Amino acid sequence: MSCPRIEVDLSKIRRNTQTLVKRLGPRGIGVTGVTKAVCGHPAIAQAMLDGGAVGLADARISNVQRLRAAGMTGPITLIRSPMLSQADQVIQSCEDSYNTEILVISALAAAAIRNRSVHGIVLMVEMGDLRDGILPENLKGIAQQVMQMSGVALKGIGANFGCLSRLAPTRSQMSTFCDLANEIEGVCGPFLKVVSGGNSANLPWALGEHATGRVNDLRLGEAILLGVEPVSGDRIDGMYTDAFTLVAEVIETGSKPAPSAIALVNPTMARRRIAHASGVSKRFIVAMGHQDTDILGLSMPFGSTLIGATSDHLVIGMPGTLPKIGSEVRFQMNYKALMHAMAAPDIKVELMGNPPTRPTRHTQDKVDHLALV
Predict the structure, then answer these.
(1) Which of 225, 215, 238 is nearest to 332 (CA)?
(2) N or C: which end of the chain has fewer CB within 10 A?
(3) Pair 249, 202 in one domain
(4) Average pLDDT of the residues in 204-213
(5) Which residues of 105-142 are buried (b: 16+ CB within 10 A; e: fewer)?
(6) What range does the domain containing 150 cover?
(7) pTM of the complete model
(8) What pLDDT shows up at residue 354?
(9) Residue 370: partners with Cβ closer than 8 Å, 6 or more residues away
């Protein structure tokens, strides 16, 4: 097999999805599988659907188009506010989209009319992450404007947590969000089909010992793919953290002078055990570097240390027996490393764990965070 490559165990992705669906279902919350970290890979998306996800979502129209080209004809939601320049593509590929700007919604409405269709609008509300979202005090007015437009239909509201701020939602924030859903229904009339309470960072809240209110959807990517809760990095009980493995080939081994000690300004780097000066160090190099993935998001093989990396070389220290030239070294990845590796043009994806052999079915209507050691 070629290197570098990512080995994907689809059975573990299905099982992770099944686990979350089983736990959230009794609370009235459906799982939407988010495919952005895997660039809309059709087989991985299918594993989410086979595990019980009620639908798919992605942040990039190119990824949605990849899913469509693979034969997925059911509803797919665009969860990043659409680019104004891509309004027609969004209408042609997505049944729904998350939005924050009335100018963009107007463009979607015009494109939908040209396409003789109706596009679903989910309004993203700013609830404290301070990334994308309509301020709560402005939500009612924008919702009323959407209701008056032809070509679009107000489908729901959504919130986001734990991305820019890296903070998990509080019970108070989620209660306020549910109140907003009730308020919009009172003003606009129609029942909101989607009340999407957030992403993988919301799992501790969603699975806590309290009512979840109006929330009926979570958009889950990292939790399904890596089996972890993003804010804490903790493994979710009963979930696989090794559905993805990055494999690289050794191209050089030997001993060289140890690098000079470096004063580490970032305190988080001190925990990564960068090799210190100590005369001569045994090391090996694999054919992979910054151009392929986020090096600091990789776990090093047991007993080894990260010495450094360049664009296409990864240098690793090893006190014991060095691997042979041409042998393979395996790494686990965190979410950032996974995203970069899946998008890297020179990294192949190898499917394992009973890949689907039947045609892709329609969608319905709707690892620990590993430090270098």
Answers:
(1) 225
(2) N
(3) no
(4) 95
(5) bbbbbbbbbeeeeebbbbbbbbbbbeebbbebeebbeb
(6) 9-226
(7) 0.90
(8) 77
(9) 297, 298, 299, 332, 333, 334
Query: How far apart are the C-alpha atoms of 170 and 313, rounded to whole Å?
Result: 43
Q: Is the separation of the CB atoms in 60 and 41 below 8 Å?
A: no
Per the CB < 8 A criterion, the answer to whether 286 and 314 are in contact is yes
Q: What is the pLDDT of residues 258-284, one digit of tens each?
A: 766 555 555 554 444 554 545 668 999
Question: Apex CA 248: angle with CA 245 and CA 250, to 5°?
Answer: 145
Q: Specify whether the CB–CB gap between 99 and 108 falls below 8 A.
A: yes
Among 226, 256, 272, give the residue marking a domain's end.
Answer: 226
Number of structural domains the chain divides into: 2
Beta carbons within 10 angstroms of residue 286's beta carbon: 24
CA dihedral of 221, 222, 223, 226, whole degrees rounded to 10: 130
* DSSP letter, residue 270: G
104-133 pLDDT per residue, tens: 999 999 999 999 999 999 999 999 999 999
pLDDT at res. 266: 55
Tell me: do 288 and 258 sit in the same domain: yes
- From 226, 253, 275, give the residue that closes a domain: 226
Rounded Cα distance between 80 and 82, Å, is 6
Point out which residues pair with 257 in neighbouring strands. Answer: 280
Residue 69 in any domain: the answer is: yes
Tokens found for residue 103: 């100018």
